[in-house]
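Entry:
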Amino acid sequence: MTDYSDNRYFELFNKQKAHQFTLGNTNYKERIRKLKALKRAIEKTYRQDLRDAMFKDFKKPQTEVDLTEIYLVIKEIKYACSNLKSWLKKQRVDTPLTLLGTSSYITYEPKGVCLIISPWNYPVTLTFGPLVSAIAAGNTVILKPSEMTPNTSAVMREIVESIFWESEVALIEGEVDVAQDLLKLPFNHIFFTGSPAVGKIVMSAASKHLSSVTLELGGKSPTIIHESTNINAAIKNIVWGKFLNNGQTCIAPDYVMVHESIEDEFINAFKAKALAYYSENPKSSESFSRIVNKKHFDRLVASIENAKSFNATIELGGDYDENTNYIAPTLVSNVDEGAQLLQDEIFGPVLPIKTYKSTEEVINYINSKEKPLALYIYAKNRKFINTIIKNTRAGSTCVNSNALQYSNHYLPFGGSNNSGIGKAHGFFGFQEFSNARSVLKRHTAGPLYLLFPPYNTLKEKIANLAVKWF
């Protein structure tokens, strides 16, 4: 066996490993009690601390903290508490005629010791959301939040330490080297949210131990605007979905494909709505957050300047301030295909426009790229909507809206291939942290005994009948 004794987190890992069966054998009432304690801490005790921390980290507006961080986790906890009893029940399944004399069921058992590595853009939601599913499934968990939002990570650590023994749930702060050391340990399951590039590193590390993984990644999520669209209704959603959290959202519209006949109408409506939401001076708006750090600020500025070098047109915004990591809400048209804005995931408040003439052109363009995490369609034409859905692939899709699929815990959330592996939220998150264990019990003798050795002509005839009829 591999010796992990020199790993600085091996002692903690061993504590959780030793405690996994005790925790795994808890009933739904005990798990709900822990979930409700987490709910109280987030909703009441530490709510203002979390608001203040995220404002310090990247000037996130309090209302956005409440709606996209606090509310989403509370909602996930409430749903799990309401349904956990039924999720943990044995799921009886049918018995085929050839297995007469037996009964079968599926039971969901915890995977064991889990690692959750979360990003900076929605630090509370993307750390505690998966944790809710892991607790509901009965696992022990080590959390590693992003080092890019240190104030929020510090508050989350306080929350965790106020509720859980470290043998149940522990949160470790630190830089990339912390995640690297944790990934060397033989976790039963790893839940990672981040970029496809880092997702590949996580998956490679997990493969050394055959750890199962959930990878919530990203990609370039297209937004398609058909000529039948109600432009004003569409713009209301798109401007909100794009500039929420300053565009630092994995399911934000990444680029827009607008039918060429309505491009000018789209641009004018977009500019008007952005001004209505964030004023003529978004820098002073209390509704507009900041880029998380200088590294990401520099990356986004470089992509804007790169687009300009290809003679793109800045329709809105384009200005920035490196002293505060501020980038204005920006809309860019006439973008060359070679520009970075159409090559890399943007993850910021910059939206490039492409025009199209035919449905086939849209489908071919989307399918020429990696499968996106989300795909958005704005149209009244049902045939167009259905054609796009049937002839493209994406982790999720919204029609005449965007980003809301994440907040529906009845829907599985996740990507496909480059945009992710596995699903989260609600029962799907519970499943992700569980092993669906099949159990078969024999009660009486059955027809199968007729086929036990030694084989003869009669048994061969019975086998042939089974193949043909059963």
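The mean pLDDT is 97.
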